[in-house]
Amino acid sequence: MLSSKSFYVIRTLALLFVSSVFADDVVVLTESNFDKEVGQDRGALVEFYALPDLFNESIVEPLKLCGHCKKLAPEYEKLGASFKKAKSVLIGKVDCDEHKSLCSKYGVSGYPTIQWFPKGFLEPKKYEGAHGAEALAEFVNKEGRTNVKIAAVPSNVVVLTPHDFDEIVLNNEKDVLVEFYAPWCSHCKSLAPIYEKVASAFKLEDVVIANVDADKHRDLAEKYGVSGYPTLKFFPKSNKAREDYDGGRDLDDFVTFINEKCGTSRDGKGQLTSKAGIVVALNDLVKEFVNAGNDEKKKILAKLEEEVEKLKGATARYSKIYVKAAKNSLEKGADYAKKEIQRLERMLEKQSISPSKADEFTLKKNILSTFASY
């Protein structure tokens, strides 16, 4: 039997897997919001899921028994993304381990269970078809009277071949993480949706997330000492002497590794963290500036500009925001930083904002926060 601690660890790993492959386009339904979202002015396809075998103490190797959940998750993600703009249909999911009474209410006894709730009704029709995205879409289109096709999800993973491997991987201006995989490898298949999210998270950085079919291009795999799948190797832009990636295989593990190696500051969703743009070398001058009188502020601003001229690369770009923030603070008053942070936060809450604009506003907000903190 497994100890209760072991089951807790297994459960956590399983939930991390499920959360990592479901897109934001799949609505998370709970006991508190189910009746508000389902049975109202649109039809709803709801997946009731759980990993019940993980908690059966007679199971010796429980992680091997959640294959149906793993297989459905990326297909259901495609479905959610494809129906995102279909206002008459909701694609949702319920965690039956967290919301047992809700799942019991709708007669759920096996996982995953998929049910269709017509517009205006809370009496579901069970879905009995295949679990591929195409089959699910055909069912939803029929029941919801829509005509949505499964969208081809663009990949941010760069596919490498012997013809372009050196050009891309050995580029001194790019950090590159390469996965050597085989199409038949089950571990590679499990990694694929997570690896795609890694690529998406760093698509705005000078970081390349790539893969190569090592079964097809065996000479290339042999050249880099690949003997098992998947094998991941990191090629830093400053030194193309590769290093093996031996870290964890969940999204957070990859994000932490890349941030540490590449000097980036992204989270798993690709958003900049609160550390992005911060130039630690300027902190002392910022503190002096904030606590000085107006006449002294002008002298410190001149020092700040001198220091900025010495910086290079991304740090130099960020430091210019420091200078602008100092000038505006001097011109508009001591409360400028706090007011501007509030304005930027309102802008960042708008769903229509582009990723590049979100980066721009986040960098400004982070740097202004150093002025507001003293």
UniProtKB/TrEMBL annotation:
Residues 294-354 form a coiled coil. Residues 1-23 form the signal peptide. Residues 16-140, 141-263 form the Thioredoxin domain. It catalyses: Catalyzes the rearrangement of -S-S- bonds in proteins. It holds the Pfam family Thioredoxin. GO terms for biological process: protein folding. Its EC number is 5.3.4.1. It is an enzyme of class 5 (isomerase). Gene3D superfamilies: Endoplasmic reticulum resident protein 29, C-terminal domain, Glutaredoxin. One of its GO terms (molecular function) is protein disulfide isomerase activity. Keywords: Coiled coil, Disulfide bond, Isomerase, Redox-active center, Repeat, Signal. It comes from the Eukaryota. GO terms for cellular component: endoplasmic reticulum. Belongs to the protein disulfide isomerase family. This is protein disulfide-isomerase. It comes from Morus notabilis.
